[in-house]
Amino acid sequence: MTADAGTVTRRPAAGARRSLGSRLAEGVSGGIVRVVLILVGLFWLVPTVGLLLSSLRSPEDMAASGWWTVFTEPSQLTFSAYAELLKNGDITDSLVNTALITVPATVLVVVIGSLAGYAFAWMEFPGRDWWFLGVVGLLVVPVQVALIPIAELFGNIGLFGSVFGVILFHVGFGLPFAVFLLRNFFAEIPRELLEAARLDGAGELRLFVRVVMPLGGPAIASLGIFQFLWVWNDMLVALIFSDADSQPITVALQTQVRQFGNNIDVLAPGAFISMVIPLVVFFAFQRQFVSGVMAGAVK
Description:
Elements: E1 2-4, E2 7-9, H1 20-28, H2 31-55, H3 59-64, H4 80-86, H5 89-122, H6 128-138, H7 143-157, H8 163-186, H9 191-199, H10 204-215, H11 217-233, H12 236-241, H13 249-260, H14 264-284, H15 286-295
Antiparallel strand pairs: 1-2
């Protein structure tokens, strides 16, 4: 017990029992949570592992038993399904179409979004704030609302059923988020740094390329990953705006299910390839992605 200016403060005894809440908080922050998180992660990986092992089994083995039997009979593993997949023209062409759609749609969104984000953050022009509010308002527009009007528009101008039409749709709906994200990130760049570059004679384009882009690398990488994953895994837009010659891998796999129903020897390796490429892209840029996410929380 201590007294200070007429007040009395009681300190808990060294051997006093802690409350239930404090003990629970200590337990949650300890090793129990780590064990639970590891178990949850392993549980979520089960379908991925099952798909991989199924793609490495023959159709006869898959019809006779489940994928988990490979742990007791490793001789079931074979790459014959992948060899057959490479002979399937529909799947291989769809993989090429997926790359032709995803890469331009990602690059265009990143480039245009970066330029617009810099303009909204640091350039003065009439109605800048109102234009930015309009961009933010586009974030709440669902994709489903625009499917029929844009399908009619693309049909009238000859873009319906083409790779370019699918790219335009993804770019149009990816730009509002890109502009919103990059504008807020670029606005955190110190004004003194930009003014110093202008005093050295740098114009707006050189300032953007030599100063803003390097500083905005983490945010740009995060945007690129988000856009790549969204476009690569999309099926709704591709199902509506592509045809048999321009369909990506998601639509091709859905078509294989509809036509044959039980051709798991084609579907399993095709689905795994479709899934593993975005994973490779994500882990390749994981450091930049984490830096971009943390940059929004720490100034």
